[in-house]
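I'll show an entry:

:::
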Amino acid sequence: MRRSLWGIGTVLAVLSLVACGPVPNPAPGASSVAPTATSAPSESASPTPSSTAAVATNSFNGDCTNAFSDAELGAIFGVAMVDHGVNWSIGQEESYGGLKCTWWSDDGKLGAIVVLTALPAAVVPDEVVEGVECSGGYFCEATMVTAQGWYSITVSGSATSEEAGVAQSLLEMAAHRGDALPAPVIPAVTTATWERPTPECVDLGVLIAAPDGSPITNEGENPKRDSLLRPLYDLLGKECNFSMPNPDPDGTSNEVSFTVTVVPGGAVAFDAGVISGKGTPLEITNGEAAAVLMPIIYEGSSAVFATDGTNTVAIEVAMHAEASDFGWVAEQLIDGLAP
């Protein structure tokens, strides 16, 4: 159920200075009392849309600054906000014509983190329930569907608020801005695109075998938290965990583990991901690959990020392992998943 904007009066005045524009009146039904928490930006504070192609291929024209600017989020949360560039996508959102955007405190602390995901409305599962939920520890999430897009947001950190209206107000503003831009286009599925939904973890395990014959144990899928955004996380794919004996006799552990994520059509984000993940080239026989830092807040584990030119696969390895030792997993999955 859609909910109205919440307590926007005071922050609208702040953001009008950021945008150098007039302050609109509060939305009908909104509180006229200044909230103790933060609130939503005004439409007058909208970032100027970037001069991208007339027909978008991704939500927000593929540009997160079309959703929010660093300056206006900084005004909302009272801390400088920026995209550090490390919470990049391995292609899940882009393969649907969508986009993931992240902003957080510029001081290296987790004072405020905003993650916005936008996808075309055509991919919305029946299980989606619009609304907003907050839990302890300064964490709120919200999701909504318009005629054009499916928008979801999480707001967390000590500089944010546990008030549901903050996340909901930000989400409604993002949706308003996204819908004002050309509709995203879902990339065409070709004969080379892997099937959706992606295989169950047990089925992926059948496709891989250690070069030295060591047994590989399927440890199951990373659990997803039951929440409003569970349908989104289910759509974006599974993270399958595996373990095997450590082939390095001098290793610090008797066992090494790795996590596999496969993305049908994910190659649209491969080049950008290699750059964002500070990738170094890794040779495989049936595609392109790089050793990267996996997407996470600030820094992630090392991983193999590979593509066959249409799809992507990421193999995240344990902290004591070398990503370059797991190129064979990417090779075997690319071969095994080929149509």
Remarks:
- The chain has two domains: 45-179, 201-337.
- Confidence is low (pLDDT under 50) at residues 1-56.
- The helical segments are 9-19, 70-77, 164-179, 201-206, 230-236, 270-276, 327-337.
- The chain has seven helices and 13 strands.
